[in-house]
Amino acid sequence: MADPTPRRNEPRLRPAPLLFEPAQVAADPEHFFDLESMDDPQALLARATELTQAFRAATDRAVEFQAIAAAQLADPRRFDRLTHADIAERAEWTEDYAKKMVEFGRDLMRGVEGAGHVDPV
After folding, report:
1. Tell me, what's the pLDDT at 1?
2. pLDDT score of 26 more than 70
3. Helices (H), 37-78
4. Is the separation of the CB atoms in 84 and 98 below 8 Å?
5. Residue 99, burial from CB neighbour count under 10 angstroms (0-12, 13-18, 19+)
6. For the chain, how long is the longest CA-to-CA vector?
7. What is the mean pLDDT of the chain?
8. Distance CA 76, CA 35 (A)
9. Rounded to whole angstroms, what are the CA distances from 114 to 48, 108, 118?
10. The whole model's pTM is what?
């Protein structure tokens, strides 16, 4: 299980870098961050674990930005605010999930401690 996302007053740990691959290599469906070419199972496990942690951290961070954007779009002070249904449609969420994300985003913007990751499932 991934560690919880740090709050604003905690330093954010930097996961392993996600190195971008050249287009010709990325076009090969068997190629994935050069993992297929690693022969040492210990090195393969270590690098695959680093990538897993990096992807999880990136996902958590992206979800936070989604929540903040949803909260901003639903802000009643905006003349062009969107409804939860509109946000859900744009983000391909359910309306209930959109409501939760708006609340989560508002908590993040207020800096509320304990605001955790909202799981879409």
Report:
1. 42
2. no
3. 41-73
4. yes
5. middle
6. 58
7. 81
8. 48
9. 30, 10, 12
10. 0.66
